[in-house]
Amino acid sequence: MRPLDIVELAKPEEVEVLEPEEDFEQFLLPVINEVREDIASLTRQHRRAYMRNRSELRETDNMLIQIKTQVEAAEESALNHLQNPNDGVEGRVAKRCEKADKKAKEMAKMAEMLVELVRQMEKSESS
């Protein structure tokens, strides 16, 4: 191996310099295109998540409507039994009223829980 010549060390390496247009096309355009694809992908994911949340909210809303309908039907049934006892046995009517009242309370509690769930979902959706 021969010793390096000082003249060789002093010569800088030649580096190929690209024209600005070549530099842009060769290096920046692929990066820009990749960023655009990433943005498009994130946008699609955001839309899917939004639609999924909206669908869950609609389902919850429908469940709340069903629960409300059941509670109203139970209340109406209890009132009808109180006003028109067909069998004349007050003890039986009282038991039915208690059952209906208990069922209505359970339904109301479920409705409150679903309302809270909807609120939490809306809060997380807005975040």
Quick overview of this protein structure:
The protein is mainly alpha-helical and 127 residues long. It is 83% helix and 0% strand. The chain contains 3 helices and no strands.
Supply the key terms:
rod-shaped; 127 residues; mainly alpha
Describe it for me?
The protein is mainly alpha-helical and 127 residues long. It has one domain. Helix content is 83%, strand content 0%. It has 3 helices and no strands. The protein has helices at 6-10, 20-83, 90-126.
Number of helices: 3
Give me the count of strands.
0
Mean pLDDT: 78
Span of the ends, CA to CA:
68 Å
- Overall structural class, as computed from helix and strand content, comes to mainly alpha
- Supply the number of structural domains: 1
Shape by Cα distribution: rod-shaped
Strand/helix succession: HHH
Low-pLDDT residue intervals, each spanning 5 or more residues: none
Largest sheet: none
Helix content percent band: over 70%
C-alpha Rg (nearest Å)? 37 Å
* Percentage of residues in DSSP E strands: under 5%
Secondary structure elements and pairings:
Blueprint: H1 6-10, H2 20-83, H3 90-126
